[in-house]
Amino acid sequence: MTKLRVLGVDGCKDGWVAIELHDGAFAGAHIAATLPALLAERADVDVVGLDMPLGLAEAGWRQADVAAAAALGAARSTVFRVPPRPVWLEEEYEPAVKRCREITGQGFSRQAWALRNKLLEANAYRNIAPHRLFEVHPEVSFRGIAQGRSLPSKKTWQGQMQRRDLLLEVGIALPAELGAAGRAGPDDVLDAAAGAWSAHRIATGQATSYPDPAEACAAGGTIAIWC
Fold it and tell me: Pfam families, alphabetically (predicted)?
Protein backbone atom coordinates (compact mmCIF):
# COMPACT_ATOMS: atom_id res chain seq x y z
CA MET A 1 0.00 0.00 0.00
CA THR A 2 1.29 3.47 -0.89
CA LYS A 3 2.17 5.52 2.16
CA LEU A 4 1.12 9.14 2.68
CA ARG A 5 4.35 11.13 2.74
CA VAL A 6 4.60 14.68 4.07
CA LEU A 7 7.34 17.07 5.15
CA GLY A 8 7.46 19.77 7.77
CA VAL A 9 10.16 22.36 7.00
CA ASP A 10 11.68 25.10 9.15
CA GLY A 11 14.55 27.53 8.61
CA CYS A 12 17.71 26.92 10.63
CA LYS A 13 21.22 28.36 10.87
CA ASP A 14 22.49 25.99 8.16
CA GLY A 15 19.58 26.58 5.80
CA TRP A 16 16.48 24.43 6.14
CA VAL A 17 15.63 21.38 8.24
CA ALA A 18 12.80 18.95 7.52
CA ILE A 19 10.99 16.18 9.36
CA GLU A 20 9.40 13.55 7.14
CA LEU A 21 6.31 11.55 8.12
CA HIS A 22 4.92 8.43 6.48
CA ASP A 23 1.28 7.87 7.42
CA GLY A 24 1.74 10.30 10.29
CA ALA A 25 4.79 8.61 11.85
CA PHE A 26 8.42 9.77 11.88
CA ALA A 27 10.28 8.54 8.80
CA GLY A 28 13.40 10.70 8.61
CA ALA A 29 15.07 14.06 9.04
CA HIS A 30 16.83 16.11 6.37
CA ILE A 31 18.87 19.30 6.14
CA ALA A 32 20.10 21.39 3.20
CA ALA A 33 21.44 24.87 2.51
CA THR A 34 18.58 25.83 0.16
CA LEU A 35 14.91 24.97 -0.12
CA PRO A 36 15.19 23.63 -3.71
CA ALA A 37 18.08 21.40 -2.64
CA LEU A 38 16.10 20.09 0.32
CA LEU A 39 13.04 19.25 -1.74
CA ALA A 40 14.67 18.16 -5.01
CA GLU A 41 15.20 14.60 -3.81
CA ARG A 42 11.74 14.35 -2.27
CA ALA A 43 9.49 14.83 -5.26
CA ASP A 44 7.20 12.04 -4.00
CA VAL A 45 5.96 13.87 -0.90
CA ASP A 46 2.26 14.68 -0.96
CA VAL A 47 2.33 17.92 1.05
CA VAL A 48 5.03 20.24 2.42
CA GLY A 49 4.22 22.34 5.48
CA LEU A 50 6.62 25.29 5.47
CA ASP A 51 7.21 27.58 8.44
CA MET A 52 7.68 30.73 6.37
CA PRO A 53 5.24 33.35 5.05
CA LEU A 54 3.95 32.29 1.63
CA GLY A 55 2.16 34.99 -0.29
CA LEU A 56 2.41 38.72 0.38
CA ALA A 57 -0.23 41.42 0.44
CA GLU A 58 0.21 44.36 -1.91
CA ALA A 59 -0.83 46.82 0.81
CA GLY A 60 -1.77 46.46 4.45
CA TRP A 61 -1.18 43.47 6.71
CA ARG A 62 -1.93 39.86 5.89
CA GLN A 63 -5.17 38.55 7.38
CA ALA A 64 -3.45 35.21 7.99
CA ASP A 65 -1.22 36.74 10.64
CA VAL A 66 -4.08 38.62 12.27
CA ALA A 67 -6.25 35.49 12.46
CA ALA A 68 -3.44 33.21 13.69
CA ALA A 69 -2.41 35.70 16.38
CA ALA A 70 -6.00 35.95 17.60
CA ALA A 71 -6.21 32.15 17.80
CA LEU A 72 -3.05 32.00 19.95
CA GLY A 73 -4.34 34.44 22.55
CA ALA A 74 -1.62 35.05 25.15
CA ALA A 75 1.01 33.65 22.77
CA ARG A 76 -0.01 36.00 19.95
CA SER A 77 3.40 37.72 19.96
CA THR A 78 4.94 34.57 18.41
CA VAL A 79 3.22 35.49 15.13
CA PHE A 80 5.11 38.22 13.28
CA ARG A 81 3.04 40.60 11.19
CA VAL A 82 4.29 40.27 7.62
CA PRO A 83 4.60 43.61 5.79
CA PRO A 84 3.33 44.00 2.22
CA ARG A 85 5.37 42.94 -0.80
CA PRO A 86 7.00 46.33 -1.68
CA VAL A 87 8.66 46.44 1.75
CA TRP A 88 10.62 43.24 1.07
CA LEU A 89 12.08 44.71 -2.11
CA GLU A 90 14.18 47.08 0.01
CA GLU A 91 17.65 45.78 0.81
CA GLU A 92 18.19 47.37 4.24
CA TYR A 93 16.05 47.45 7.38
CA GLU A 94 15.72 51.22 7.85
CA PRO A 95 14.49 51.94 4.28
CA ALA A 96 12.17 48.93 4.63
CA VAL A 97 10.64 50.35 7.83
CA LYS A 98 10.19 53.72 6.11
CA ARG A 99 8.45 52.05 3.18
CA CYS A 100 6.26 50.06 5.56
CA ARG A 101 5.19 53.24 7.36
CA GLU A 102 4.34 54.86 4.03
CA ILE A 103 2.11 51.93 3.07
CA THR A 104 0.60 50.83 6.39
CA GLY A 105 1.22 53.69 8.81
CA GLN A 106 3.26 51.37 11.03
CA GLY A 107 6.73 49.85 11.19
CA PHE A 108 7.78 46.28 11.91
CA SER A 109 10.37 44.44 13.95
CA ARG A 110 13.97 43.49 13.19
CA GLN A 111 12.98 39.92 14.03
CA ALA A 112 10.59 39.91 11.11
CA TRP A 113 13.22 41.55 8.86
CA ALA A 114 15.63 38.73 9.73
CA LEU A 115 13.32 36.43 7.75
CA ARG A 116 13.91 38.39 4.52
CA ASN A 117 16.34 36.12 2.68
CA LYS A 118 14.48 32.91 3.49
CA LEU A 119 11.10 34.57 2.87
CA LEU A 120 12.17 35.66 -0.61
CA GLU A 121 13.70 32.26 -1.30
CA ALA A 122 10.54 30.43 -0.23
CA ASN A 123 8.20 32.65 -2.24
CA ALA A 124 10.36 32.41 -5.37
CA TYR A 125 10.36 28.63 -5.01
CA ARG A 126 6.60 28.54 -4.45
CA ASN A 127 6.10 30.01 -7.93
CA ILE A 128 7.88 27.08 -9.59
CA ALA A 129 7.52 24.29 -7.02
CA PRO A 130 6.30 20.88 -8.16
CA HIS A 131 5.25 20.25 -4.56
CA ARG A 132 2.03 21.19 -2.77
CA LEU A 133 3.44 23.90 -0.48
CA PHE A 134 1.42 25.24 2.45
CA GLU A 135 2.37 27.85 5.05
CA VAL A 136 2.30 26.62 8.64
CA HIS A 137 3.20 28.21 11.96
CA PRO A 138 4.64 25.89 14.65
CA GLU A 139 2.99 27.59 17.62
CA VAL A 140 -0.38 27.38 15.88
CA SER A 141 0.32 23.70 15.18
CA PHE A 142 1.38 22.99 18.77
CA ARG A 143 -1.71 24.78 20.03
CA GLY A 144 -3.75 22.43 17.85
CA ILE A 145 -1.95 19.37 19.21
CA ALA A 146 -2.36 20.64 22.78
CA GLN A 147 -6.05 21.33 22.11
CA GLY A 148 -5.73 24.98 23.10
CA ARG A 149 -3.65 24.49 26.25
CA SER A 150 -0.95 27.12 26.80
CA LEU A 151 2.72 26.10 26.60
CA PRO A 152 5.94 27.53 28.07
CA SER A 153 8.37 29.26 25.71
CA LYS A 154 10.03 26.88 23.25
CA LYS A 155 13.37 28.43 24.26
CA THR A 156 13.09 26.82 27.72
CA TRP A 157 13.86 23.21 28.67
CA GLN A 158 10.32 22.72 29.95
CA GLY A 159 8.86 24.18 26.77
CA GLN A 160 10.94 21.95 24.51
CA MET A 161 10.24 18.79 26.50
CA GLN A 162 6.50 19.49 26.58
CA ARG A 163 6.49 19.97 22.82
CA ARG A 164 8.39 16.72 22.28
CA ASP A 165 5.87 14.93 24.52
CA LEU A 166 2.97 16.45 22.57
CA LEU A 167 4.45 15.19 19.32
CA LEU A 168 4.76 11.73 20.85
CA GLU A 169 1.08 11.87 21.84
CA VAL A 170 0.13 12.23 18.16
CA GLY A 171 2.46 9.44 17.05
CA ILE A 172 5.53 11.47 16.08
CA ALA A 173 8.48 9.96 17.96
CA LEU A 174 11.59 12.04 17.34
CA PRO A 175 14.74 9.94 17.88
CA ALA A 176 17.86 11.27 19.56
CA GLU A 177 19.92 10.55 16.42
CA LEU A 178 18.89 12.56 13.35
CA GLY A 179 22.07 12.28 11.29
CA ALA A 180 23.18 15.53 9.67
CA ALA A 181 19.85 17.14 10.56
CA GLY A 182 20.80 16.79 14.22
CA ARG A 183 23.02 19.85 13.94
CA ALA A 184 19.91 22.04 13.61
CA GLY A 185 18.69 23.76 16.77
CA PRO A 186 16.28 21.79 19.00
CA ASP A 187 13.53 24.38 18.52
CA ASP A 188 13.96 24.21 14.73
CA VAL A 189 13.61 20.42 14.74
CA LEU A 190 10.53 20.59 16.97
CA ASP A 191 9.02 23.31 14.76
CA ALA A 192 9.64 21.23 11.63
CA ALA A 193 7.94 18.25 13.28
CA ALA A 194 4.93 20.39 14.21
CA GLY A 195 4.79 21.58 10.61
CA ALA A 196 4.82 17.96 9.46
CA TRP A 197 1.85 17.23 11.73
CA SER A 198 -0.05 20.08 10.06
CA ALA A 199 1.06 18.86 6.63
CA HIS A 200 -0.42 15.43 7.41
CA ARG A 201 -3.68 17.09 8.44
CA ILE A 202 -3.71 19.06 5.18
CA ALA A 203 -3.08 15.90 3.15
CA THR A 204 -5.92 14.06 4.93
CA GLY A 205 -8.41 16.93 4.68
CA GLN A 206 -8.51 17.66 8.43
CA ALA A 207 -6.72 21.02 8.48
CA THR A 208 -8.04 24.45 9.39
CA SER A 209 -6.90 27.64 7.65
CA TYR A 210 -6.37 31.07 9.20
CA PRO A 211 -8.29 32.95 7.91
CA ASP A 212 -11.11 30.70 6.71
CA PRO A 213 -11.62 31.06 3.82
CA ALA A 214 -8.05 31.86 2.80
CA GLU A 215 -7.19 35.38 1.64
CA ALA A 216 -6.70 35.91 -2.09
CA CYS A 217 -3.18 36.84 -3.15
CA ALA A 218 -2.75 39.45 -5.90
CA ALA A 219 0.17 37.45 -7.36
CA GLY A 220 -2.03 34.36 -7.59
CA GLY A 221 -3.02 31.65 -5.17
CA THR A 222 -4.05 32.30 -1.60
CA ILE A 223 -2.55 33.42 1.72
CA ALA A 224 -3.31 31.34 4.81
CA ILE A 225 -1.65 29.68 7.79
CA TRP A 226 -2.70 26.04 8.02
CA CYS A 227 -3.02 23.81 11.05
Answer: DUF429 (PF04250)
0.70 exceeded by pTM: yes
- CB under 8 Å to 1, separation ≥6 — which residues? none
Is residue 83 assigned to a domain? no
**Residue at 221 is within a domain:** no
Exposed e or buried b for every residue in 55-79, given b needs 16+ CB within 10 A? bbbeeebbbbbbbbbebbeebeebb
Whether residue 194 is contained in a domain is answered as yes
What Å distances lie between residue 154 and 13, 37, 49, 51, 160, CA to CA? 17, 28, 19, 15, 5
Q: Which domain holds residue 189?
A: 5-55+129-210
Q: How far apart are CA 13 and CA 69, in angstroms?
A: 25
Position 80 in a domain: no
Domain count, the chain: 1
Establish how many alpha carbons lie within 13 A of residue 142's alpha carbon, considering only the half-sphere containing its beta carbon.
Answer: 26
Per-residue model confidence as pLDDT tens digits over 86-109? 999 999 999 999 999 999 999 999
